[in-house]
Design brief:
Layout: E1 23-29, H1 33-44, E2 49-52, H2 79-92, E3 96-98, E4 102-106, E5 112-116, E6 120-128, E7 132-134, E8 150-151, H3 154-157, E9 165-169, H4 173-182, E10 188-192, H5 202-210, E11 214-217, E12 220-227, E13 231-238, E14 244-248, E15 251-254, E16 258-260, E17 290-292, H6 304-335
Parallel strand pairs: 1-2, 1-6, 2-3, 6-17, 8-15, 9-10, 9-15, 10-11
Antiparallel strand pairs: 4-5, 5-6, 7-16, 12-13, 13-14
Helix pairs in contact: 1-2, 1-6, 4-5
The structure holds NADP nicotinamide-adenine-dinucleotide phosphate.
């Protein structure tokens, strides 16, 4: 892949700021669909744009074998290929795409500083598109059967469970929301929840309790995902009685929370009570000139097409912001 001039700094050595801290109009942190779409829009708008991909392009998307709901690919496309195409498209318009991981950011003075393992960059604006990962149970069988019966996305995989039986783990909004999506395909949706009451919003609870395809296994945790070639069920333990039993199922959907990748921004950007970055409807964060897009600020949709859409908005807002930048920088310097 082009544009990956990665220099490794030995651990313990700081990158030399004096030597090299090139200034970009826009640094995009994250190389998933949101960051790469932002790069396409920003580079086409002639912003000097750098994308710091992290350790691989594509983010969560690159772990998806076949994306069937991204418009324009009626036969589906592998997540890795879609990521590579997005990267090529961004590079074609002049974005620099570098495979390096950001270790620190400083949004307290302009231009902002973005440090990676090997280098420091200055940025008039930053788009944070670092994504989020679904929290997993960490039980035997879960990673082994991931993609072969274990999933974290009903919208992506529900289709494969037409006429089948699935287990949904969790009792929050995501579990209920996505579990209800699954009732459109599966014959039976069995929620396994560790307590005997749900955390999810009332409306979801009412819908789930009223749905004849839904059954609950209360006060129970999944101890193991069982299977041979594919999933055959889960072994659950009742936390009150200690009894274990097997719930047969063809698929297991895990919804026990999301972990947005926001450690880098702690104390610098406002986050909500679940740790997602707070961005307004135009993707502006609490710091003017820092935008957030994709799953790092979206706990509801978590779709490639939505991530791409918010990335495009962030880049268009960045383009507008650049016009105001000289004034803002001068005013802030005067009041410092
Ligand atoms: P969440 O609200 O934190 O719920 C996670 C669920 O998983 C809880 O029921 C929790 O049980 C359970 N859980 C956590 N760790 C577990 C473990 N190790 N083993 C078994 N169960 C475990 O997360 P979420 O459902 O992903 O939602 C995240 C945010 O997105 C929430 O704010 C939610 O409201 C929002 N959201 C909203 C909508 C909507 O409004 N349409 C849809 C989806 C998500 P306990 O209840 O016992 O803690």
């Amino acid at each position: 892949m082009s544009g990956m001039g990665l220099t490794i700094t030995p651990l313990g050595e700081e990158p030399s700021a004096q030597e090299e801290a090139p200034l970009y109009d826009l640094v995009i942190i994250g190389g998933g669909p949101s960051g790469l779409t932002a790069a396409i829009y920003a580079a086409r708008a002639a912003l000097k744009t750098l994308v710091l991909l992290g350790s691989a392009p594509g983010g969560q998307m690159s772990n998806t074998e076949m994306i069937e709901n991204f418009p324009g690919f009626p036969e589906g496309i592998s997540g890795m290929e879609l990521a590579q195409r997005m990267q090529t498209q961004a590079e074609r318009f002049g974005a620099e795409v570098v495979m390096d991981t950001v270790t620190a950011v400083d949004f307290s003075t302009r231009p902002f500083t973005v440090s990676t393992y090997s280098k420091q960059y200055q940025a008039k604006m930053v788009i944070v598109a670092t994504g989020a990962v679904p929290r997993m149970l960490g039980v035997p069988g879960e990673s082994e059967f991931f993609g072969r019966g274990v999933s974290t996305c009903a919208t992506c995989d529900g289709f494969f469970y037409r006429g089948k039986k699935v287990v949904v783990v969790g009792g929050g909004d995501s579990a209920l929301d996505e579990g209800l999506v699954l009732t459109k395909f599966a014959d039976e949706v069995i929620f396994v929840h560790r307590r005997n009451e749900l955390r999810a919003t009332k409306i979801y609870q009412e819908r789930a309790f009223a749905n004849p395809k839904v059954r609950f296994v209360w006060d129970s945790v999944v101890e193991e995902v069982l299977g041979d070639e594919t999933v055959t069920g889960v072994r659950v333990r009742n936390v009150k009685t200690g009894e274990t039993s097997v719930v047969e199922a063809d698929g297991v959907f895990v919804y026990v929370g999301m972990e947005p990748a926001t450690d880098l921004f702690k104390g610098q950007l406002e986050v909500n009570e679940w740790g997602f970055i707070v961005a307004d409807e135009r993707q502006h964060t609490s710091v003017p000139g820092v935008f957030a897009s994709g799953d790092v600020q979206d706990y509801l949709y978590r779709q490639v097409v939505v991530a791409a859409g918010t990335g495009a908005i962030a880049a268009m807002e960045a383009e507008k912001f650049l016009g105001e930048y000289p004034d803002l920088e001068r005013r802030e310097a005067e009041s410092a």
